[in-house]
Amino acid sequence: xxxxxxxxxxxxxxxxxxxxxxxxxxxxxxxxxxxxxxxxxxxxxxxxxxxxxxxxxxxxxxxxxxxxxxxxxxxxxxxxxxxxxxxxxxxxxxxxxxxxxxxxxxxxxxxxxxxxxxxxxxxxxxxxxxxxx
Length: 133
Description:
This protein has 133 residues and is an alpha+beta fold. The chain is 41% helix and 21% strand. The chain has five helices and four strands; from the N terminus they run αβααβααββ. The protein has helices spanning 3-17, 27-43, 56-62, 81-89, 92-98; strands spanning 24-25, 67-76, 105-111, 123-131. The chain has a four-stranded mixed β-sheet with strand order 1-3-4-2, sandwiched between helices. The longest helix is centred in the N-terminal third of the chain and has 17 residues, at 27-43. The protein starts with a helix and ends with a strand. The model has no long low-confidence stretch (mean pLDDT 94).
């Protein structure tokens, strides 16, 4: 199982506890999140501001995903799926994004992705959204 799949499974376990439907991986949101994780890793800075000072909603729109609602979580330092989801669930704003009943699609980016090495400091980017219509 991949680290991305593990994180989405952990996110969906939290949503199940709250009687919310599972999030569905979306290729456009995956692209958005991965690009932002790589940007943060390159800059060695945790930030919601991206390349060319972009905001998360601008980055999502740039992929062609039209949304009615969207959110972004970022994290630094967790080494596994359970760890990053715990970090987000322990933070009220991040928890609210994960448990938002309006979002249904998810994208996750991790940089660097080296699952065999638990000592790697990773940047994590989570894009959550619901399509227009």
